[in-house]
Write a structure and sequence with these properties.
The structure holds 4 protein chains of 4 kinds. By secondary structure, chain B is mostly helical. In chain B, about 75% of the residues lie in helices and about 0% in strands. Chain B is elongated and about 55 Å long. The N terminus of chain B is likely disordered. Chain D starts with a helix and ends in a 70-residue tail after the last strand. The longest helix of chain D is centred in the N-terminal third of the chain and has 37 residues. Chain D is built from 16 helices and 2 strands. Chains in contact: A-D, B-C, B-D, C-D. Chains A and D meet through helix 1, helix 2, strand 7 and strand 9 of A and helix 4, helix 10, helix 11, helix 12 and helix 13 of D. Bound molecules: heme-A (2 copies), dinuclear copper ion and copper (II) ion. One heme-A (HEA) sits at the interface of chains D and A.
C-alpha cells in the first residue's frame, strides 16, 4: 500500500511525478479536512436526549468561500498541468532519433532507419518487440496500428500513447539511464492483450552503434 | 400564503402552461434532435476528415428528383397544419380530408425515396464497402443510407401514426377543445419535415 | 389522466388572433428550396455556397418550427425548452471537427 | 390524531377495493401504477446487481490466482473455462459484461427506473406518472433488453469482449475478437434499453414540470426529485447520441459499412467521441440521483434543514451542464489533438467546484444537527465519505500529464468503484432502507441493516482502496494475467488480498438479501411516517394506495423544515398549514402523527 510512484527514467518523468505529488498533497489535505470535519461533526452532534438541532438554512458567505476556494485550487492545478502537458505532447524535440513502432495483435514491430539514418528507405530493418534507444538522446516513435487500437506504455519512462489504426501518432521520450525497461500494451486489444509485452533497451551511444552495425550486418545477409 | 391560495384554485401547477401530451411530445422531439445530431454530425465530421471519400453534389445523387421530393414533403406539412386548423374550428370533414392528403403525400415521399435507392444501388452506390462502385468512397454510401434511411423510417412511422389519428377522427374522437392527438402527430410530422430540410441541403447540395 | 387541452387551446387562440399565414409560409419554403438548388450549382467557391445554403436551410427550418409547429404562439419557456439541445449539438460537432 | 388515522384508514379502505377491481395481470405484470413499475425495476436491477457481482468474483479469482482452476469452475463449459481455468477471451467478456451490466442494468435502472418511478409522483404530489402506459412500456423494454444481454453469454463465440466502452475497431469486426453475435446482441440490447430510458425520461420531465401539487413550487421540491429531474434531462439528450453510435457500429458489424473501420476510411476516434459525449453525462446520470437521495437521508438524520438548499440545486444543474463539455478527459492518450486535451482538462477541473459545493453543504447540514444514526443515514454518510475519495482521485486523472501514467491502470478502476459503488450503490442501499415502508409497508431490520453497513464499509474499502496503489505501480486494467509482466509480480500478494476481500464483500451482501426478503414478509409494520420526515410521500399510508393521494395535497413549505420553531416536534410536514391559518384547508391532506 504505497502512494509513491516508482522511480522514473525519462527527462519529463520528473515533472509528471512532481505534479502528481502536488495533487497528492492538495487532495490529501482536502481529504483529511473534509473527512475529519465529517467525523468530528458525527461525534460532536450525535443524538442526545433533549438536544434540538440548529434551525438554519445556510450561509451565503460560506458558500462563496468554498466555491471560490475550490475554483482557485483547481485553476492552479490546471495551470501547472498545462505547462508539462504542452512540453510533453505539443513540441517534438529536434535532432531526435526516429523509429516507426507498428502495433498489431499482439506484438510491436519496431522499424529502424538503418545505415542512412533515414526511415522509409530499403536499408531499414525491423525488430519484433524490441525498442532500442540511446541514453540522453531524444527519440521519436511514430505509432501505427495494423488492426485495432493498442497503447504504447513505458511505465518507467511515464510514456503512454495509443496507437490507432489509420493514424500515425508521434510520441517522444529521452531516457536518462541505460538499462532494460518494459514495454506494455495499455489498451484492451483482444485475447492476447495481457501478453503484448516488449522491452526497451537504452544503450550508451557506443553500444548503440555496435548493436546497430550488428543488426545491419544481419539484415544484409 | 396568497400564492398557495392561488395555486389551490389552479389545481396542479402547469409549469409550462402546456398540456401533458404536447409537452411530452416536445420533450421527445428534443431527444430526436440529438439523435439526428449524432448521425448528421458524424457525416459532417467524416466528410471533413476524408473529402476524397465524397463526390460533388449532383455527380452521384439525383438532385432534381430529390428537390421535387422535398417539395412534396413541404406540401405535406401544409396539409398537416391545415388539418389541425380545421379541427381547431371544429371542422370534422376538413380534418379528415387534410389528414388523408398528408398521408398520401407522405406515402408518395417514401415511394420516391425507395425508387431513388434502387436507382442508386444499380449504379453501385451502396452502403457496404465491399460492393461500393460509385464515385467517392465507401463512407459516402455508409453515411448517405444511414441518414436518409433513418429519416425515411421516421416518415413511415409518421404515416402509420397519421392512419391511427385518421381512424380516431373517423370515430369522431376529436373536437375544437380536444385535439391533443392531432396536434402532437402534427408536431412530429413537422419535425420530420424540418430534419429533411436540413438533410437535403447538407447531403445533396453541399 | 391528462387534462384536456381546452383551457390551453383557448389561451392559444387568445394569443394568436387569426390563423397564421400557413400558405404564405409554404410559398416562402417553396421559393427558398428552388433558390437553394440553383445556388448550389453557381460555380461560387465552396465556402460561400456552403454558408449560403446553410443560412437558407436554417431559415426554412425556423419557418417550419415557428409557424407549423406553432412555436411563435407558445409561452417563452417553450422556446427555451425547444432550443436547449442546439448548443450541445454545436459543441459536439465543433469540438470533434478541431481534430482534423 | 384519531381523526387523522381514521381518515387515512378509510381512505386506504376505499382504494383497497379499487385495487381489487384490477385483474392480477394488469395489477402485477402489465401494471401502469408507478409504484408497481418501480418495484419491477427494483427486482430486475437487484437481480442484475447480483449477476454483475458474480461476474466480478470470477474476474477476481482469475486475477488473484491467475490461470489456476477456480473452485467450482468445472461447471463452466469448455468454451469459457476448460478444466476450470478461465480463457483470456472469456476474461475479456467478463470485464465487458461486468461493466455493462453494473452500469446499464443495475445502477442506472435502480437509480432512475426504480427511485425515479417511486419518488417523483409521490414527492411532487401527483396521482401517477403523466403517461402511465408509456411508463409500463419503459419497463417492458428494459427487461427483454436485459435478457438479450444475458443471452449473449450462451451464443456461439461468447459475449461481447471489447470492454464496456467497446472501442472500435476491436468491437467493429468479429475477426479481431472472435465475438460476432455476442457483440451484436450487446449493441441491440443497449439500443433497446436506450428506448426504455427515453420513455422514462419523457415521463419524469413532463410529470415534474406539469404535475406538481398546488403550492409545490420549484424550490419546494425535495432534492431527490430535483436531481432525478435534471438526470432525466441528461438521459434525454445523451442517450440518443449513444443510440446513433450503437446503430452505426451495428451496421459496421453486420452490413459492412465503415464508419469506424479505418480500412474503409472510417475514424476509430469518432466512436470514442460519440461514446464519451454520451458516456460522461452517463456517469453523472449515475451519481446525481444518488446525491439527491443522500441529501434527503442526511437532512432526515441530522433533523436539520439542508444547508444551502438553493446552492445544492444550482450545484446539481452546474454539474449537469459541465458534464457536457468534459467528455474528452477519457481520451487524453487516444491520439486526440493535444490542444483539445488542454481545453478538456480545464473544464474537467472545474467540475470539482459544484461537487465541492455539494460536499461542503452536506457537512454544513450535519453541523449543529441532532444526528440519529439510523441505517439509511449511515449509508448516506458512507456515500459522502466515499464520494469524496472517488472524486478526489478524479482530480489526478483530470490532470493530463498525470493521466499519461495512470490512464488505463487500476487507479482508474479504483476511481470507478469509489464513485459507483462507494457513491451510487451506498446511496441505493440507504434509499431502499429509507423508502422500504413505501414499497412494502414494513421497516427493514435496523440491527441487521447496521451490521450489513459496517461489514460492507470495511470489505469494500479493503477491496478497492489498494487498487489505487497497484495502479500507481503501473498495473494496467483489463489485464487477464498480471503475472505475465515480471514488474507486476511483486503486486501479486496484493491481488490475492483484494480477491479474498472481494469474496468477503459479496458474502456479507447476503445479510442485506436476507434482511430484505425477511422484512418484506415478517418486517415490523410501518406507520405513514416512520422516519418523521417532511416530504409528501410521508403524508400517505405505507404503502400508498392506488392513486397515492385521496385528495390533491396542498404544499405550504419546503421539504426540509426539520426542528422548525413552528412545530412542537422536530419535523414539519410540507402539508401542515402554517400557524396563521388555524383550520387546515378543507381538501388539504390532514397531517398524520408520525408513528
Ligand atoms: C458516478 C460516476 C462518476 C463520477 C461522479 C465521476 C466523477 C469524476 N470523474 Fe470519473 N469516471 C467514471 C465515473 C465517474 N467519475 C468512470 C466509470 C470512469 C471510467 C470509464 C472507463 O471505463 O474508462 C471515469 C473515468 C474518469 C477519467 C478518465 C481517466 C482515464 O481513463 O484516463 C477522468 C479524467 O479526468 C475522470 C475524472 C472525473 C472527475 C474530475 C470527476 C469529478 O466529478 C469529481 C468531483 C468531486 C470531487 C473533487 C470531490 C469532492 C470535492 C471536495 C472534497 C472539495 C475539495 C476538492 C478539491 C480542492 C479538488 N473520470
Ligand atoms: C456500479 C458499478 C460497479 C459495481 C457495483 C462494481 C462492483 C465490483 N467490481 Fe467492478 N467495474 C465496473 C463497475 C462496477 N463494479 C466498471 C464500469 C468496470 C470497468 C469495466 C471495463 O473495464 O470495461 C469495472 C471493472 C472492474 C474490475 C477491473 C477489471 C479489469 O480491468 O481487468 C474489477 C477488478 O477487480 C472489478 C471488481 C469489482 C468487484 C470485486 C465488485 C464488487 O463490489 C461486487 C460485489 C457485489 C455486489 C455489490 C452485488 C451484491 C448484490 C446485492 C447487494 C443486491 C442483492 C439484493 C437483493 C437481491 C435483494 N470491477
Ligand atoms: Cu495491444 Cu493491448
Ligand atoms: Cu468522465
Amino acid at each position: 500500500m504505497s502512494w509513491m510512484l516508482p522511480e522514473s527514467f525519462s527527462t519529463f518523468g520528473g515533472d509528471i511525478d512532481r505534479i502528481y505529488y502536488i495533487i497528492l498533497w492538495i487532495t490529501g489535505i482536502a481529504f483529511f479536512l473534509s473527512e475529519g470535519i465529517l467525523v468530528y461533526f458525527l461525534f460532536r452532534y450525535r443524538h442526545k436526549e433533549g438536544r434540538k438541532a440548529k434551525y438554519v438554512h445556510g450561509n451565503t458567505r460560506a458558500e462563496i468561500v468554498w466555491t471560490a476556494g475550490t475554483a482557485l485550487i483547481v485553476f492552479i492545478v490546471g495551470m501547472l498541468s498545462i505547462g508539462v502537458w504542452s512540453r510533453v505532447r505539443t513540441q517534438l524535440p529536434q535532432d531526435a532519433m526516429e523509429v516507426i513502432v507498428s502495433a498489431k495483435q499482439f506484438e510491436w514491430n519496431v522499424t529502424y532507419p538503418g545505415q542512412d539514418g533515414v526511415i522509409g528507405t530499403e536499408d531499414d530493418f525491423t525488430k519484433r518487440n524490441e525498442v532500442h534507444a540511446v541514453v540522453d538522446r531524444p527519440i521519436i516513435a511514430y505509432l501505427r496500428a495494423e488492426d485495432v487500437i493498442h497503447s504504447f506504455f513505458l511505465p518507467d519512462l511515464r510514456v503512454k500513447q495509443d496507437a490507432v489504426p489509420g493514424m500515425e501518432t508521434p510520441v517522444w521520450f529521452e531516457a536518462t539511464e541505460t538499462g532494460e525497461y518494459v514495454v506494455g500494451c495499455a489498451e484492451l486489444c483482444g485475447l492476447g492483450h495481457y501478453r503484448m509485452a516488449g522491452t526497451l533497451t537504452v544503450h550508451t551511444a557506443a553500444d548503440y552503434q555496435a548493436w546497430e552495425q550488428a543488426e545491419i550486418q544481419a539484415a544484409g545477409q | 400564503m396568497t400564492t398557495d391560495a392561488m395555486a389551490l384554485e389552479r389545481g396542479y401547477m402547469p409549469g409550462m402552461r402546456v398540456y401533458n401530451l404536447k409537452l411530452g411530445m416536445w420533450v421527445f422531439l428534443l431527444s430526436e434532435v440529438m439523435f439526428f445530431t449524432g448521425l448528421i454530425g458524424s457525416y459532417i465530421i467524416l466528410r471533413f476528415a476524408h473529402p476524397t471519400q465524397f463526390a460533388e453534389p449532383g455527380v452521384v445523387l439525383n438532385v432534381p428528383l430529390t428537390a421535387f421530393n422535398t417539395f412534396v414533403l413541404i406540401c405535406s406539412s401544409v396539409t398537416m397544419v391545415k388539418a389541425y386548423a380545421a379541427i381547431a374550428t371544429g371542422d370534422q370533414k376538413g380534418l379528415k380530408i387534410w389528414l388523408l392528403a398528408t398521408i398520401a403525400l407522405g406515402t408518395f415521399f417514401v415511394g420516391i425515396q425507395v425508387f431513388e435507392y434502387i436507382a442508386l444501388a444499380q449504379h453501385g452506390f451502396v452502403p457496404m464497402a465491399s460492393a461500393y462502385a460509385a464515385e467517392g468512397g465507401a463512407l459516402y454510401g455508409s453515411t448517405f443510407y444511414t441518414m436518409t434511411g433513418f429519416h425515411g423510417t421516421h416518415v413511415t412511422i409518421g404515416v402509420l401514426c397519421l392512419w391511427f389519428v385518421l381512424w380516431r377522427a373517423w370515430k369522431g374522437a376529436y373536437s375544437a377543445d380536444s385535439l391533443g392527438g392531432v396536434e402532437i402527430v402534427g408536431l412530429y410530422w413537422h419535425f420530420v419535415d424540418l430534419v429533411w430540410i436540413i438533410l437535403f441541403t447538407i447531403v445533396y447540395l453541399i | 389522466m391528462d387534462p384536456q387541452p381546452a383551457q390551453e387551446a383557448a389561451m392559444e387562440h387568445a394569443e394568436e388572433h387569426k390563423d397564421p399565414p400557413y400558405f404564405l409560409v409554404w410559398g416562402v419554403l417553396f421559393i427558398l428550396t428552388i433558390l437553394e438548388v440553383f445556388f448550389a450549382f453557381t460555380g461560387l467557391p465552396k465556402f460561400w455556397i456552403a454558408t449560403g445554403l446553410i443560412i437558407m436551410a436554417l431559415w426554412k427550418a425556423l419557418l417550419v418550427a415557428m409557424y407549423y409547429m406553432h412555436l411563435r404562439f407558445e409561452p417563452r419557456r417553450m422556446w427555451i425548452l425547444a432550443a436547449s439541445p442546439l448548443p450541445l449539438a454545436v459543441i459536439l460537432v465543433i469540438a470533434v471537427l478541431t481534430e482534423f | 390524531m384519531s381523526t387523522a388515522e381514521a381518515a387515512i384508514g378509510d381512505r386506504t379502505a376505499a382504494h383497497e377495493h379499487v385495487d381489487h377491481d384490477i385483474p392480477f395481470i394488469r395489477k402485477y405484470v402489465f401494471s401502469t401504477d408507478h409504484k408497481t413499475i418501480a418495484k419491477q425495476f427494483m427486482f430486475m436491477s437487484l437481480f442484475f446487481l447480483v449477476v454483475g457481482g458474480l461476474l466480478a468474483m470470477m474476474m477476481r479469482w482469475q486475477l488473484g490466482y491467475p490461470s489456476q482452476p477456480m473452485p467450482g469452475g468445472a461447471i463452466l463449459p469448455e468454451t469459457m473455462a476448460p478444466g476450470g481455468i478461465l480463457l483470456p477471451e472469456f476474461y475479456n467478456s467478463l470485464v465487458t459484461m461486468h461493466g455493462t451490466i453494473m452500469i446499464f442494468f443495475a445502477i442506472m435502472p435502480l437509480l432512475v427506473g426504480f427511485f425515479g418511478n417511486l419518488l417523483i409522483p409521490l414527492q411532487v404530489g401527483a396521482p401517477d406518472m403523466a403517461f402511465p402506459r408509456l411508463n409500463m412500456a419503459s419497463f417492458w423494454l428494459a427487461f427483454p433488453a436485459g435478457l438479450l444481454m444475458l443471452a449473449s453469454f450462451l451464443v456461439e463465440g461468447g459475449a461481447a469482449g471489447a470492454g464496456w466502452t467497446s472501442y472500435a475497431p476491436l468491437s467493429a469486426s468479429g475477426e479481431y475478437t472472435g465475438v460476432y453475435l455476442g457483440q451484436q446482441l450487446w449493441l441491440v440490447s443497449l439500443t433497446i434499453l436506450g428506448f426504455s430510458s427515453l420513455a422514462g425520461a419523457v415521463n419524469y420531465i413532463t410529470t415534474v414540470i406539469n404535475w406538481r401539487a398546488p403550492g409545490m413550487t420549484w424550490f419546494r421540491l425535495p432534492l431527490a426529485t430535483w436531481s432525478l429531474f435534471i438526470t432525466s434531462i441528461l438521459i434525454l439528450l445523451a442517450i440518443p447520441i449513444l443510440a446513433g453510435a450503437l446503430i452505426m457500429l451495428l451496421f459496421d458489424q453486420t452490413i459492412g459499412t465503415t464508419f469506424f473501420l479505418p480500412a474503409g476510411g472510417g475514424e476509430p476516434l469518432l466512436w470514442q467521441h460519440l461514446f464519451w459525449f454520451f458516456g460522461h453525462p452517463e456517469v453523472y446520470i449515475l451519481i446525481l440521483p444518488a446525491m439527491g437521495i443522500a441529501s434527503d437521508l442526511i437532512a432526515n438524520g441530522a433533523r436539520k434543514p439542508i444547508f444551502g438548499y438553493h446552492a445544492m440545486v444550482l450545484a446539481i444543474i452546474g454539474i449537469a451542464f459541465l458534464g457536457w463539455i468534459v467528455w474528452g478527459h477519457h481520451m487524453f492518450q487516444s491520439g486526440m489533438n493535444p490542444m483539445l486535451g488542454t481545453t478538456f482538462m480545464v473544464s474537467t477541473m472545474f467540475i470539482a467546484v459544484p461537487s465541492a459545493i455539494k460536499t461542503f453543504n452536506w457537512l454544513g447540514t450535519l453541523w449543529g444537527g441532532d444526528i440519529h444514526f439510523t441505517t439509511p443515514v449511515l449509508h448516506g454518510l458512507a456515500f459522502v465519505s466515499m464520494f469524496i475519495i472517488g472524486g478526489l482521485s478524479g482530480i489526478f486523472m483530470a490532470s493530463t500529464p498525470v493521466d499519461i501514467y495512470i490512464h488505463d491502470t487500476y487507479f482508474i478502476v479504483a476511481h470507478i468503484h469509489y464513485v459507483l459503488f462507494g457513491g451510487s450503490l451506498f446511496a441505493i442501499f440507504g434509499g431502499i432502507t429509507f423508502w422500504f415502508p413505501k414499497l412494502f409497508g414494513t421497516i427493514m431490520n435496523e440491527r441487521w441493516g447496521k451490521i450489513h453497513w459496517v461489514l460492507t464499509m470495511i470489505f469494500y474499502n479493503l477491496v478497492f482502496f489498494p487498487m489505487h496503489s497497484i495502479g500507481l505501480q503501473g498495473h494496467m486494467r483489463r489485464l487477464y494475467d498480471p503475472t505475465q509482466y515480471e514488474y507486476l509480480e511483486p503486486l501479486q500478494p496484493m491481488n490475492v488480498f483484494i480477491t479474498i476481500s472481494a469474496f468477503l464483500l459479496i458474502a456479507v451482501q447476503l445479510i442485506f438479501v436476507v434482511n430484505f426478503f425477511h422484512s418484506i414478509w415478517k418486517g415490523k409494520k410501518a406507520g405513514p411516517n416512520p422516519w418523521n420526515a417532511n416530504s409528501l410521500e410521508w403524508t400517505v399510508p405505507s404503502p400508498p394506495p392506488h392513486g397515492n393521494f385521496a385528495t390533491v395535497p396542498v404544499v405550504y413549505r419546503g421539504p426540509y423544515e426539520y426542528s422548525s420553531p413552528e412545530s412542537d416536534e422536530d419535523f414539519l410536514l410540507q402539508t401542515t398549514p402554517p400557524r396563521d391559518q388555524q383550520q387546515p384547508e378543507p381538501h388539504a391532506t390532514p397531517a398524520p402523527e408520525g408513528a
